[in-house]
Amino acid sequence: MLAAALPFRIIRKHSDDLFRLEALLFGTAGLLDEGLFREAVDDAYYLSLIKEYKVLSAKYSLHPVHGWLWKFARLRPANFPTIRISQLAAMISTTGGLFSRTLEARDIKTMRSLFEVKASGYWDDHFVFGTKSRNYPKAAGSQAADILLINAVIPVLFVYGRSRDSLEICDRAVSFLEELDPEDNSIIDEWKTTGIEPDSAFITQALIQLRNCYCRKRRCLDCRLGARLIGMGASLKKPDELILEPDFPSPLKGG
Predict the structure, then answer these.
(1) What is d(CA 148, CA 157) in angstroms, rounded to the nearest whole number?
(2) Which residue has the higher pLDDT, 114 or 243?
(3) Is 176 exposed, middle or buried (0-12, 13-18, 19+ CB in 10 A)?
(4) What is the phi-psi region of residue 126: left when phi exceeds 0, alpha when psi lies from -120 to 50, beta otherwise?
(5) Is there a contact between 56 and 20 (Cβ–Cβ < 8 Å)?
(6) What is the phi/psi pair of residue 131, to 5°?
(7) Which residues, 6+ apart, have CB-to-CB distance to 15 below 8 Å?
(8) Does the pTM of the predicted model rise above 0.90?
């Protein structure tokens, strides 16, 4: 909703000014609405953002989303929308443009460094506007950066390479996935119970794709692996060696 309400052309115009970027993002996110952070009524930084956003919103005819839509409950403070939006502003303000820097990256260390960003100095001792906390920098670590790379950045890089008929860019995107550690989630845990131990994010992404697009939809015959296993059914030692979704008992059979 925030991305839809704030056109990228406006973001790009102010990508060299972190304070204005934060004003645009926080303001359009509705997080500068009066009454949302009552403890911030005398907060100088908060009031400066409001003042700046009033100018920018009038200039670009921006319409904020409702600030109450953002979730704070049941989140670790380091994952609060306020922190993540400030980190997003820091990411966008990368010198030379984020996408061009992504295209220039030749190794995973350089690529990861673009997304291991730190929220602005105000957030060193804040999680929300107007309320101080213990002081420590709010940086997005390597794990958060890797999640972003695996699920967003590298797929976009690969598609860009395909759209430009650039085998070099596509190969680089694949090599980045092969260099990243395997993901750790419930789907991968299920694969591990079958004896499969993925050694990279490239393999875990393939396993997640198989699980979501074939196993869960019972498209075994459309899957090369599933079809082969079914074809081997008679020669397998035990029926449970087939990697299939569990079959639920039919009510017509009384059980």
Answers:
(1) 12
(2) 114
(3) buried
(4) beta
(5) yes
(6) -120, 115
(7) 21, 92, 93, 97
(8) no
Q: Which two tokens stand for residue 96?
A: 């030379």
- Indicate the burial class of 146 (C-beta count within 10 angstroms; 0-12, 13-18, 19 or more): buried
Which token pair is 99? 């996408």
**Residue 63 token pair:** 């319409």
For the record, the structure tokens of 183 come out as 């993901």
CA distance 243 to 255: 23
| pLDDT per residue as tens digits for the range 19-73 | 999 999 999 999 999 889 989 999 999 999 999 999 999 999 999 999 999 999 9
Which amino acid would we find at residue 85?
Answer: I
Residue 223 is encoded by which pair of tokens? 């899957």
pLDDT digits (tens, 9 = 90+) for 142-178: 888 999 999 999 999 999 999 999 999 999 999 999 9
Signed CA dihedral, 52, 56, 59, 62: sign only = negative
Query: How many Cβ atoms from other residues are within 10 Å of residue 116's Cβ?
Result: 17
